[in-house]
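User: Some background: our group keeps a shared notebook of sequences we're curious about, and every so often someone picks one and asks for a predicted structure to add to the entry. Today it's my turn. The entry only has the sequence so far, pasted here. Could you supply the structure so I can complete it?
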Amino acid sequence: MTGRNEAVPGGQDWVKETGRGPGRPPRGAAEGDEDPLYVRIANDIEKLIHQGKLVPGDRIGSQTELAQQYNVSITTSRKAHEALRTRKLAHTVAGAGTFVGPEDTTPAPAVMPAYLVIADELATRIRAGDIPAGGQIPSRRMLAKRFQTSLVTAGEATAVLREKGWVYTVADMGSFVTSAERWPSEQEWQKTIARHRGRREER
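Assistant: Of course. Here's the predicted structure to add to the notebook entry:
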């Protein structure tokens, strides 16, 4: 489970909006009742969110990781994930993992692989019209220089954009923006970022 010490911008308000906060009894629990194990795990993670140690976009431990960490069954850790989703503190991306925040949360650049940072910036510029349909995006060499990264990383960024229909590539010429109807929706694009980020973290 990842954790960082920087504060969440508006973090406490964000958590309060969900209607819960650390230390509050679970919904439906009677005074003095001992929380089920999965509720205790969810409360622990909620506390980390409230403290800013887990911020929107951070990956929460997988069911297997939580089961090992708390010495519980997979069923219990799965219920902990479900509890966090019910509290609207987390969302799950199939094949990638469970992340802090609502479904459209963008991982913070500080915790995103460099190629995703590059791809997301280019996608934002394309959607805003800064790079029009038919326009050429910067070459791998230009991207590598601008973002101070390798040609391989720049190539990975272009590959993600091509995979999702933002651009097409012409051999020996470069990559060009497709027509708007081929672009993914904002929600689909954020899910793509989360999925690729999850794959990188599992390596």
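Suggested note for the entry: Residues 2-33 have pLDDT under 50 and may be disordered. The radius of gyration is 20 Å.
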